[in-house]
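Subject: sequence -> structure tokens, single chain

Hey, anyone have a minute? Need the predicted structure for the following. Not urgent.
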Amino acid sequence: MEAEVVDAVRRGRFDVAATAGLRGYGPEILGFLVALGPSSADDAFSQFCEDLWRGLPGFRGDASFRTWAYTLARHAVLRVRRDPYSRRRAPLSDLGPISGLVAELRSTTASYLATEVRDRISKIRDELDEDDRVLLVLRVDRQMGWNDVARVMAGDGATEAEVVKRAAALRKRFERLKREIKERAEREGLVEKKSGRGTPGA
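Reply:
Had a minute. Here:
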């Protein structure tokens, strides 16, 4: 792989070099970016592809192509995190003959990220106590009204007054649970932290 990429660069065949490099190392670079933060990995991977394409003519081979690619990926993450409000994907037309491959890799990225984030969110939910999991499933997954959620969780024999009181308590519990899950997801890089730029509350 390394020899193929280096030889293509020396011959000025940057399209061949980029194609070989992305096919060979693209999946592991993606995994690296996801490990650094799933919420920014998609934008960082797009930035990485753009930087690799534009930077190939200047690749001197002082380090291996793989090492150079990881360096670009790391820089891409930092750039995206430094100014997330200016994120944009490079138009595929800017990427010349590798545009088709980049589109393919972007599609793979979206699928990979969806699976990765879903699995990690599921893990967070699995670690909750049973009543909290039941509350999330009924309210979020099944979209039940609050009184219905309260009836399910209260069991048979609850009066209407008890149901209404239980529903109010479950609303408060649900809000606390959402905050806890959000904070955990932020710590694990699954969602972006709010920057405090005056974003209106929900």
